[in-house]
């Protein structure tokens, strides 16, 4: 460096405002002014949220996609200089965006496994965001790491995996299912072939690996197989019975066929709560079959896992304690804000097969010193402190009331099914198992005995759902069952009652009749 550079540096130093002057009002810190600014922002955000979202009279405004985009396009995404105060910004976005959101807290928002979040979890989210702990290493989340491990031990106990079990919070069922099959694949290769997949990649014989699950298992089983290099071809689906549960006889048959053709069934995925019908596969029997055939037993309880909170429903999960791994989602039946899920294993040693070590993050020396770096159990690195919101919710609500909420939604689905059966224009597809009700509008105008009429009935069902969404009366789901378009309510909101579902049913029938009349007129 020359003398000139030195001088230049000094002048820069003199000209520069302090970092605090420049950026101090952007971050929450020790300055009283920044704390006041934070309070005011959070208060305004809360007021706008209550006005534009919580107090909504309908589950959706009915706005079309183009008009929502048009409102946003009035402002550049990143203005060079901001032109609005925080209060103006929040009020504008409240009107342009929040007002046109799916109101998950509304009793008629009944499409998906999309829950209203508990208030306690919202308070926790404020802390999760503000404290911004990262769960990959202990030095980024000291007390947080211990809290997650503490909650995890309780969860393992809840599903009967306490003895040797362990687990980690995940982004949800997709990630948990992937982890289950990842561990299953690595375990099989290590035990059968003395092969370390993590280091050596897939051996040639891996093209013969097969995963078994029911026809109604979640699509992420196939997605996981694809991501794991086994291909969707590795997934063999087993037939379901009239209650949409995996059929044991077909499982045994398929196992025999697979083995007969030299294929290697290494994992059995049971579903505890299918997405459409809430069906629970026979876990105890499947656990035994998996054991007898040397297969990893993974239970996808993303939806049904919440039954464990209910005294009266818990027994329906019997057999889950036999699982090698379990998926459970808290952003469904545990009323947590997205995202929040967990992946549990019966034998904590099985996490060894995905272990990675980085000198900057979790050096081996930490391991020797007993420092818990949770990154070794996760396929994420930077990871949110989602355990906090579940913990605060459990502490605030208590187990009994959690159980009552589960019971309420199961009963509500049954009551709603009774209403549907009493309605001549609607046909119920199956008795509800958990909180979903699947049904179909049957047109008055046509005999349903030819392809054209069936096709028209399909279209009518799809249009009923679209119309109720556009009118904002109800957010309903659709699905196909045996090739036919159906409607679905997913009853997860503990504030929904049968008086609400009765109104939704009436609106569905009214919409169906109106669409039929329009069709005849047109
Ligand atoms: C929701 C769900 C998943 C996927 O979970 P995400 O949290 O959406 O990633 C997997 N399996 C079942 C049975 C589910 O209901």
Automatic annotation (TrEMBL):
Which cofactors are named for this entry? Answer: pyridoxal 5'-phosphate
Keyword terms, alphabetized: Decarboxylase, Lyase, Pyridoxal phosphate
List the InterPro entries: PyrdxlP-dep_de-COase (IPR002129), PyrdxlP-dep_Trfase (IPR015424), PyrdxlP-dep_Trfase_major (IPR015421), PyrdxlP-dep_Trfase_small (IPR015422), Pyridoxal-P_BS (IPR021115)
Q: Where does it sit, as one GO cellular component term?
A: cytoplasm
Single GO BP term: carboxylic acid metabolic process
Q: Which residues carry this modification: N6-(pyridoxal phosphate)lysine?
A: 332
The record's listing under CDD domains reads: DOPA_deC_like
The protein, known as: Pyridoxal-dependent decarboxylase
Can you tell me which family this protein belongs to? Belongs to the group II decarboxylase family.
Gene Ontology MF, one: aromatic-L-amino-acid decarboxylase activity
